[in-house]
Structure formats: C-alpha cells, structure tokens
Amino acid sequence: MPSFTLPPIHDNPDGGWGPSASNLPDQFKFKDIPYAPYSKSDKLGRFADWNDLSTDTRQTAVGLPSTQATRPVGLGGRRRDGNQAFGSGTASAFAYFHVEDEASFSLVDNKTTAPRRGGPFTRGRGASRTSAAYSVRGSVRGARGGANARGGANQRGGGRRGWRDWDKNNRTRESSVVISPQWSMLEEIEFHRLSKLRLEVDEPEELENYGRLFAYEKSYDRVTTKTERPLQPLDRMKYNPTTSDDPIIQQLAGRNVATVYTTDVILSALMCAPRSVNPWDIVIIREGNNLFLDKRDGGPFDTITVNENAADPPQDPTPANPNNPTEKAVPETPSINSAMSLSLEATYINQNFGFQTVTEHAPPPAVDFSQPNPFYGPDEAEPLASCGYRYRLFDLGITEDEDLKICVRTEVDAYSPGQGNPREGQGLVTIRALNEFDPRAQGAGGAPDWRSKLDSQRGAVVATEMKNNSCKLAKWTVQSVLAGADLLKIGYISRANPRDNTRHVILSTTSIRPTDFAAQLNVSLANGWGIVRTVTDLCMKLPEGKYVLVKDPNKPVIRLYSVPAEAFTNENDNEDGVEEEDEQDSAA
C-alpha cells in the first residue's frame, strides 16, 4: 500500500499571508515571478468575470493594444458591492505590452446591443440595408406612419421604394442607332472627363436673320389653375432641317465663314451631354477643312424627353422573349404613360403651345427679318408659324492667331412688345412647355399635383421639374442663350383627364431670363464650349469622311465611330432607287 507524505510547510516569520521569499526553495519553478496581492475575500467564481473588467483590460484580453498598464484578468476593477478590491491600485507585473507597431490596430465598438425586429441589419422583406432611416409620410418619429411605426422605413413593407425596384437594375435601354460591326471605334470619353473642360467664348457675331415673328400674348402670363385655358391644336408649318439640308449654311460654308456648322438643337445636346441619360447620336461629316454636325431624320432630336433624369423614369414595355413561350407579348398599342408615348405627347404640346401663345391677327403687328423664311415654299398650303432663324458666329479660338469658328443656326419663337426692336435682337422670346401626365403613374418622379400645388407651392413644383428634367431644361436654356433671347417662357400644361392624352389644359406660364435660369440649373456655358472644342479637335485630326458620336444607352460615356459614307441614308430613297432599277430592267 503506497504511503502518503505531507510536503514541507514553510511558515512566514513575518506573519503575513503566503510563503516568505527568504525561505522559498531554489528549485521552486515560480521563484522569479513577482507576487500579485489579492484580497482573501475574493472568490474563485469572480476570477473570469468580464463585467467587472475595465475597458483597457477587455482590450488586452482580446489582443487589442492598451495605452496604459492593466490589471490581470479578474483581479482589478470595482467590485459589485462598490468596495475597492485589495491590491487593485498597485501596478501589475502581469500587464500586457505590445512592442510591435500598433498603427494598424483600430478600436472596435464593444457595446452589446440587442437586435431590433425590422431594424437596419435584419434580413427581411422591405427592411432597409443601411443604418440611415428614410423619411416617409408622417415625419414625427414614433407616430403612426413614422420612421419606426408599421410601414415605416425600418419595418416590413417600409421605405420609399417604387414599383418593381428589384427589376430596375435589369432594365437596359436600346441604342439610338444600331452599331454595325463594320464601324470602328476611334475614341471613348467618360462624362466625368467632359465635366472638367472649360472654354470662355466671347459674344457672337450676327451673320444673317430669316423669318417672321409674331408678338407674344401676355394674357397667358396671368393664367392660373382656377382660370385654366384649353390647349388648342393649330395647323402651322415650322421647319427644323438638319445642318447639311440648310441652304443658308451651304452658302455660308461656300464663303468659308467658319470651320464648324451646326444647329442650336444639336449643339445644345452636345454642350449638355454630361446631364443626358437617354441615348442620342450626332452624325459628323468632314469635308475639306469643314465639319458639319447633323441629326438623323426621326432621331432622338426630333422629339422631347419626359422625366429623363428621374430616379425611376418612364419605361417602354420590354419586348417578349421569343424563346420563352409563356411570356406575354408586348401589346400593339403601348400605354399612354410609356416613354415613347410621353415623348410624342410632349412634342405635340410644345409645338401647339408655341403656336397658341402668339398674336397673329391683332396688333402689335408681325415683324419680318431681313430675309424671308428659307424653307417655306410658295406651294405650301398651311400658314407659316412664328419663327425666326438667326445665324450666329462664335469664336472657339484659344489664342488671337487661332482661326476656329462655329456657325450656329438658332431659333426664336416670338417677340415681347415694348422691349425694343426685334430686328436688332431686342425683346426676343423662346417658348417651351412642361407637361404633367399622371402624378400617380410609374415614372412621375414624385411630382406633386399641379392643380393643387402650382399656385400655392410653385417652388416645390419647379424644384421637382428641375430634378426630373435636368437635361431637357438645360438644353432649352442653352438654346435660348445661343439665340440671344431675352426671355424664356415655360408653360405648365396638364391633361384634362389623366387617362386621356389627347386633351390638355394650360395651368400657368412663367417667364425667366435664360442667363438667370442657367445659374439656377447650374449650367456652365464654359463647360459646354469646352466639350464642343474637344470634339472639334478630335474630328479635325481625322481624315475626310463620315463619323458618328454616340451616347451609350446605359453608361455615362460617348463614343466616336468611323462609319461608311453610305451610312444613315434615307431608306425611302433606297427603295425608290430599287424600284427604278426594276423598271429599267423590265423595260429592257
């Protein structure tokens, strides 16, 4: 049977607690470890009590650096009964010091918070994915409909989300022109690079003026939502041919008055390119030392966009997948609130609003420019609309010796009586119109009801339109500045019935100076001229031929392509040529 022998016990001659250092055996393995004092009343259960640890002790325990000496785990800090533990005030030899570089360490939040149902980090339908709460109806927090109430931003079904938000990222726009495999891409420029360009341009030189202007009817400035007027369709002729089809520009090009020739519609689209979202394209023809910027017939410059810059713009129906038989086909008649339908409606409204708001058969009389309308023939049956064409020359040269000028055909729609002589460029007016279709429809962009807000809260309506139609308003402003107009008239036109896109009413009309409106929209003409000069320099380095500048339909990028000379020819002309060849073959 094994025997049990008690180990030797060394009494402390000083009467203290624990062994004495004088009679401690040399072979004792903890000889060189200093002694940490502790209280006799401390219990073993508190040895690993994390709630009683100081912040520095917690950091040290998890491996984070501490800025000061810390106490060993379980021996420091305040006791739960509020008394100071024995020996807690003494410096500990067990403190952890990190001798390496601590610059890469960062303090994390060590506070424990209970997750809240429907909170920002709760996985669930309708839950917000960020910690910021969105504002919803009923802005008082905690109230019914507030940020934390049922249906709020952090609850199920909450958040300011639109219809089919999950599908927005999957929607892709089609290019305004089909990119052929035979085309070669020469340059690609991102919008953020275009936004940094600057070029100051002096006042333009007047070359020639054509057309006839009628006086603007000032009674439309007093129209309110309570005295609305119906929009009347009028048969008038107004021409907007492309640059190469303009006989006056051809004459000016023959005299070599400029290097670049274009129209205000095309030039404003290029100057406001960083604001554009929808696709567009500009045909560029290099002939000798001249550049002609053209638009295609039936292209994006012949219609007006609606809510292009809205967070959820109007959409056209997606064509059905032929490989999926269960998918529904696109209806033959598109919705009146689709992007294409709204664009045609806005174009119709702008034309008729400009025709209706001028005085044709009453004083003050019409004003004729030095030359008649160059596009109106004697065989035309419909009367001519009020329109004046001003051909103006802008100098894009950086130095005095550089000869680089651009000739622009600009348009004005009317003149304001009593503001000076219109023949000398005084009192000229451009007329445009904004349209409201249905505030509750998809693509309305959160616009308020004009009939209830336009008279009392016009600022809110204008701010919403400036946000949803930033590109369109910027182009209208640039066109007015290029034409030298003194005033820009903007009409607010709504549907008589939200479900009927054929009848409209005029709710109000506002008048503003184009330069002041450009400042409100943050439109920089210097940036626009810088973009024009950059594109001109790129094209002047290329050989003679035809090119096309295309805005990517889904990215903020423009690309310059080299295209064959027969590209963008009229299909009707080609069909007529084929028919003539067939007739000649049959006759032979």
Automatic annotation (TrEMBL):
Q: Where is the composition biased (Acidic residues)?
A: 572-588
InterPro entries linked: eIF3d
Cellular compartment(s): Cytoplasm
Q: Return the annotated region ranges for Disordered.
A: 1-23, 142-168, 306-333, 568-588
Q: Which GO terms describe its cellular component?
A: eukaryotic 43S preinitiation complex; eukaryotic 48S preinitiation complex; eukaryotic translation initiation factor 3 complex
**MF terms (GO), sorted A to Z:** mRNA cap binding; translation initiation factor activity
Q: Which UniProt keywords apply?
A: Cytoplasm, Initiation factor, Protein biosynthesis, RNA-binding
Q: In terms of domain of life, where is this protein from?
A: Eukaryota
Composition skew (Gly residues), residue ranges: 143-157
Q: Where is this region: RNA gate?
A: 300-314
Query: Which family is annotated?
Result: Belongs to the eIF-3 subunit D family.
Q: What is known of its domains?
A: The RNA gate region regulates mRNA cap recognition to prevent promiscuous mRNA-binding before assembly of eif3d into the full eukaryotic translation initiation factor 3 (eIF-3) complex.
Function statement? mRNA cap-binding component of the eukaryotic translation initiation factor 3 (eIF-3) complex, which is involved in protein synthesis of a specialized repertoire of mRNAs and, together with other initiation factors, stimulates binding of mRNA and methionyl-tRNAi to the 40S ribosome. The eIF-3 complex specifically targets and initiates translation of a subset of mRNAs involved in cell proliferation. In the eIF-3 complex, eif3d specifically recognizes and binds the 7-methylguanosine cap of a subset of mRNAs.
The family database entries (HAMAP family) matched by this protein are listed as: eIF3d
Quaternary structure note: Component of the eukaryotic translation initiation factor 3 (eIF-3) complex.
What is the name of the protein in this document? Answer: Eukaryotic translation initiation factor 3 subunit D
